DNA sequence: CGGGATCCCCCGAGATACTG
DNA sequence: CAGTATCTCGGGGGATCCCG
């Protein structure tokens, strides 16, 4: 790669110069869930070489997708956040997520679910499902990752972490993906222990309708 | 890249394993405009090493995105085409194109417009513009690339090549991009020679309304 | 001539250690 | 915590060659 260019005057080649590099898509995805510290990113990107993350963040900063902000205060931590231009990539990232999820079945050996992937996965699922009816607050645990889901006036907001007092707390493993595909009904999911519930169990039907990630037809 | 995996159980990492490799996005984009021979792909991807194209096509075939078909007949040519799974990537590719086009201004030194980029660019522009009113047939020339645009019942179809007898033939250079952004009005485009017209010049207003590729706000 | 395969070189990616 | 420094290794770039 003498340089990362493609010598074509077109939008896709410009996009490819950014997202067509190793780790870029996942770095950007992690930043779509909110500003992140360097160590947050390292933790959320298992296996990334630290020097490569450093390089990528500089490239993103140079391209105007990311801003590096040194927090002044007790902790002088460094936080990376997306600019408007970076945020504008979200529809494309979500389209790619939806496509890639189509072939997601059994996890491969050693694969984990990160917090950013859970949050963005639920965001994508909300976009592909029907508009939710009842307002509610959910907390979803998959592996070590936790997401906080707010449903209000038919709008869905997903943020990382556990911010307490949900109407329903869901604890699941990788087979939660089969549930989101509709391959496992809410009743089956409970009966087979795919999901553990704490709270108003009837809300699980709402989740099944409003959060959908279909399998690729094949 | 020990392997191309990311050790995350999520759709985006699966997509990144395919799309996050050099040249992959452009290869897939070229195939979205229709089945292509090896030499067509080489011609449409300036600078791609032939061995790398060969490798990528095998990967895509192995991933089920591409089928390699040996045409039986007078010419035993080999044709590569997208499977349904490959075609399902088109919305994501178009979203990336639209995003990348946001910062397209002056062409860089040595950049060209390929046929696939013109066709897919117009396809993306049709998706972002308003629904066209009058039925019409256009032929668009930009550089050496030619696209054939059919507007019928508000639906737009764009195919490569010149299939004759258009209602309007448009010949333009890279500044056609400014026209698609709305930065240059149809009148200005004609007055400044950005577009050359042959046929029903009043149809240029229809094009301006129906084909839009906005600039990134910055 | 279309459709590749083979070669070498070099840069980018991975891993680890270390530092402000 | 937030990177930088250094090393190794494999994949990409580029040219050339090959085969039906």
Automatic annotation (TrEMBL), chains A, B:
Q: Which UniProt keywords apply?
A: DNA-binding, Transcription, Transcription regulation
The question of whether Transcription is a record keyword is answered with: yes
Which Gene Ontology molecular function entries are recorded, alphabetically? DNA binding
Q: Which SUPFAM superfamilies match?
A: SCP-like (SSF55718), Winged helix' DNA-binding domain (SSF46785)
Q: Which residues form the HTH hxlR-type domain?
A: 10-108
Q: What is this protein called?
A: Transcriptional regulator, HxlR family
